[in-house]
Amino acid sequence: MTAIPVLPEAQLAPLKRAYADARAAKLRQGALFAAALVLAILVAGRVAEVDLARMGANIGGFFSYFSRIFVFDSGSGALQGQPVFVDIREWFWGFRKWLRLLGDTLLIAYVGTIIGATLGFLLCFSATRNLVSNPWARGLAKRMLEFCRTVPEIVFALIFVIAFGLGPLPGVLALAIHTLGTLGKQFSEVVENIDMKPVEGAIASGGSWVQMVRFAVVPQVLSNFLSYMLLRFEINVRGASIMGFVGAGGIGQDLIEAIRKFYYTDVSAILLMIIATVMLVDMLSANLRHRILGREERR
Amino acid sequence: MSEGLRQSALTDLDGLRARHPQMFEAPLKNGAPTIGVALLLVALFILGVVRLEVTPLQILNGLGQLGTFVQFMLPPMAKSWAQAWLFLQALAETVAIALLGTLLAATFAFPFGFLSARNATINRVVQFISRRFLDSIRGVDTLIWALIWVNVVGLGPFAGVLAIMTADVGSFGKIFSEAIEAADRKPVEGIVASGGSRLHEIRFGLIPQVLPVMLGQILYFFESNTRSATIIGIVGAGGIGLHLSEQIRTLEWQSVSFIVLMILVLVAIIDFLSGQLRFAIIGNRSTAV
């Protein structure tokens, strides 16, 4: 005798059929999805001029590029063909210059983040559903933020270089505008999730809109805002490292020159410095963010 | 009544302070260290403005110039139908680059995600090396990868695909490993208890849990890569960016605004489509890890 009662075949048949149907439907759906994906890949591969044979050959080329940038190929004859690690001084011959440019890059990211975050802070409250009831004003603010973050910062930089001239200023402004778009959106999402009771209290006691924001909203959101700002600073350091590609200041100018002119060892030296800087900034900012949010939780 | 409460609280102030120390902690805004940090930040900002030679005069001049450019940009349109068609083809190329780059990156990042996750890796050394490897890749911007690939494979969209792929392996690897570490341990324990091997644990215990999260992230990255793919053309790696930078450099402002408009529409369409797809795949669940 089995513990599980088995239904008679007549009752079981429709259940089995329904199960088979459900499985077949799921399989069909999966197959359809896979077919659509394969089709999309084939079309995309054709448009992007990919062929696998070339790709195989090029992967090799990529790795040989990376072995080449770690070997001296010019300079004093004795070092020719030696790996870069034998003479760090020669490898990082431009260390001071690159360090200064990296400092500039960090400053571009910092000033850009601060300006963008300030503007984002001023604008974010007008894009929130719970503080602004006029749909037109809210829609306008939202569309503006969307425009600022959808247009890539390097495009702004390209245009600003023509308007403001070569130098770090267009880079700062481009990053600031992009930051305004992204932070404005993230800030307004934070504001939409606040506790509304203090807001009601501020309005009930006769506060103006600005007073309501200052005393009921800002204290609730400040630590989240700071955390998002730090995160955006990390991202902007990466963004600032390429501003030099279009003449908008920072280390990018030297990097693009080194890559274009095949100064192999310079490429590896500058790339390593950029990676080290980015890692350092990431670590510091992650540490700070945890502290800010941790402090908030203890309260 | 409340006077009495106040009196009793005041007489027992030291006791209260000892019992509830966190209530007497100075709030964030009044602490001297906070003011110090704020002053430091302001000083750094001023240093930046001075060091980067940002002058009000330069800004005002530039803004004037910018105003004229914006006037020239209206209305946005291409010079001819042939040019519009050319831009449209480049836009299709951009989407193709983003799609292939994202899929290739996800494929390559998949094993790295498991190698860098605490609960699925082989050993600590492998995990450490894998993590540092992903970090280094992530430290280098897509545009830099594009430049390097252009050097290796020559100009064209293929370099763009490879650039997006390389740049995203780092981000995908990190996000995948975080998703794996956040997975529930119970299914894995069940598989261990019923005698499954290490590979069984991953295949039947972890993958079913993390796959929907990964798919959601892949869709997110496809969206953001469409934006990245619009600019890699600036260094010659295919897509609309080449035309965009060309039109900006030759001051064809109407074409510039036309291309920017096309990009905005494209990004909006892809946002919408991938939002629908994400909903179909993972339902209402949040993809945030």
Helix fraction of chain A, binned, reads over 70%
Instruction: Tell me, rounded to a whole number, the average pLDDT of chain B.
Output: 83
Largest interface: A-B, 63 and 65 residues
Q: Rounded to an integer, what's the Rg of chain A over CA atoms?
A: 28 Å
Low-confidence stretches of chain B: none
How does the overall form of chain A come out from the CA principal axes? flat
Shape of chain B: extended
Oligomerization state: heterodimer
Structural category of chain B:
mainly alpha
Order of helices and strands of chain A: HHHHHHHHHHH
| Overall pLDDT confidence of chain A | 84
Look at the helices and sheets of chain A and give the structural class. Answer: mainly alpha
Report what the structure shows.
The complex is a heterodimer of chains A (299) and B (289). By secondary structure, chain A is mostly helical. Helices cover 76% and strands 0% of the residues of chain A. Chain A is built from 11 helices and no strands. In chain B, 77% of the residues lie in helices and 0% in strands. Chain B is built from 12 helices and no strands. In chain B, helix 6 (124-139) packs across helix 8. Chain B is extended and about 80 Å long. Chain B starts with a helix and ends in a 7-residue tail after the last helix. At the A-B interface, helix 1, helix 2, helix 4, helix 6 and helix 7 of A face helix 3, helix 4, helix 5, helix 6 and helix 7 of B.
